[in-house]
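Hey, resending since the last one bounced:
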Amino acid sequence: MNKLLIFAAPSGSGKTTIVRHLLSRYPSQIAFSVSATTRTPRPYEQHGVDYYFMSPEDFQAHIEAKDFAEWEEVYEGQFYGTLRSEIERIWGTGKAVIFDIDVHGAIRLKQQYGAQALTVFVKPPSAEILEQRLRARGTENENALARRIAKAKHELSFENKFDVVLVNDVLDKALQKAERIVEAFINEAHGQTKKLKNT
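The structure tokens again:
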């Protein structure tokens, strides 16, 4: 069965670190779903590797053509989405698809793909620690940071909509738990991953 491993979390929860670790740990079994976005590339980002960078007009054309499995205006004027062609491309290589994605996008993918998908909510130890992590990045002005913090705190309320909750307190332990989640889902029947709930 073609499978989707969907990691989602508020900004600052550490999901990107976890997903990168899993990609290096299981390169023959999973591959990263590259999202499309209308935001401007950062200097180190490459088109087709980090994101598929699109103009707002191109993104809208893909929406109208129903090319997205999910999409959302994550921040005002900034759209993100998952192209169906990207999922099919990875499945065509015989691998499961792993996502590092927004909470709402994860829920929409689960609604579409059902038992083919496992949703993992990466949870920070507390809302206070989450805010500290976001402030420590030092990449945004105060207005942008306040907006990101408010969004992140709101997203914490969605954990009960996910198949598995992974608390990222001590990173090494979180990475080990993430490995067990991936192995259980890839190698066993979907129902058996329920024992990993609230990891």
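DSSP finds seven helices and nine strands in the chain.

Sorry for the duplicate.
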